[in-house]
Amino acid sequence: MSARRFWIIVCALALAVGLAACGQVSDPSSSENDGVYVDAGPVTYQLQVSRQLNQYAVEDRQYLSGLPEGEGTLTADELWYGVFLWAKNQTNEFHTTSDTFTITDTNGDTYHPIKLDAELNGYAWTSQVLAPTAIEPEPNTTASFGPTQGGLVLFKLPTSVYSNRPLTLHIFPPSGHPASISLDL
Length: 185
Prior knowledge:
- The chain has helices at about 5-20, 60, 140-145, and strands at about 35-40, 45-55, 80-90, 95, 100-105, 110, 130, 135, 150-160, 165-170, 180-185.
- By secondary structure, the chain is α+β, with helices and mostly antiparallel strands.
- The chain has a single domain (about 5-185), classed as Sandwich (Immunoglobulin-like).
- Strands 1, 2, 3, 8 and 9 form a five-stranded antiparallel sheet that branches.
- Strand 10 (about 165-170) and strand 11 (about 180-185) form a beta hairpin.
- The longest helix is centred in the first third of the chain and has 18 residues, at about 5-20.
- It is globular, with a radius of gyration of 20 Å.
């Protein structure tokens, strides 16, 4: 066998292995933080990005607009944590996306999101009624064009969550079974 033929076969095998790894399997009740889809009730959700937000960074400042009065400051032992979600109604009926989310840590502590004013923050997740095949955030919106391409669910967490990882996001739909997603932190 010539050296050229050998390298063609090696490259073809490497390509085949790489392509085989591209498929993702959906688990309707939980997933790792790698873009796998989860079904919460009749709506499918995907975690686009989750990360700590820096209120002093130019990019992150826009995510923190529309905070309720009195919620805009952090203590030395708190952090902002953004969860950016995408949702799609893959049914033939109208369905409402979730407006109830929590995060739990390994100690069992539960954290609730801070409701952002969607009039002041174009990234804020807002529950919507989705027509069949419709998505949230809607196309041609700030959230859909933003770097995360997802609606923001904002949490104020204690820095102790770094010691109590992994965190788990829980999505509670208006009807049907909830879903959970493991979060990176």
